[in-house]
Amino acid sequence: MNTVRDLKLLVVTVGGTIDKVYFDASSEYEVGDPMVPHVFQGTHVSLDYSVLPLMRKDSLEMTGEDRQMIRETCEQADESCILITHGTDTMADTAEYLMGIEGKTIVLTGALAPARFRETDAIYNLGCATGAVQSLPPGVYVTMNGRVFPAGQVRKNRAAQCFEWVEKH
Questions:
Q1: Any binding-site annotation on 88?
Q2: Would you please indicate which residues are annotated as catalytic (active-site) residues?
Q3: 59 assigned binding-site residue
Q4: Residue 167 has what pLDDT?
Q5: pLDDT confidence of 23, banded at 50, 70, 90?
Q6: Where are the chain's structural domains?
Q7: Domain 4-165: homologous superfamily in CATH
């Protein structure tokens, strides 16, 4: 496991609400440039990190090929700590797809409101994910709403606008 002193973090951005830019009152949007560098600079993050903008997709548009590209990116990365920003609608599916990658701690997070908005959960979620990726053992996790969930044991509750545990059978 990396120590905080020598941690090199890879942030992979794949799109989702966290990076969305809205254009008008009818909620027309597009996924914009990654917001992670702005959030990290604005909150004085002092980790050694790099940002890899892999794609700009709403998670409802994610395909199996997209998930395979994310998996291969994680497998081939030199870094053992990887934070992925992702749309919340299918984040749990992608987390499950990444299970079994050896020797890496992978944390997925997103936001219910764009990071560009004044009132957003994006900054808090990125902070939780950054702490989680440094302290958890290798595996795949989802961090949302102040909680950390192992891949395969989480789902989005759209009605409650939060993530919740799924009982493993």
A1: yes
A2: 17
A3: yes
A4: 78
A5: low
A6: 4-165
A7: L-asparaginase, N-terminal domain (3.40.50.1170)
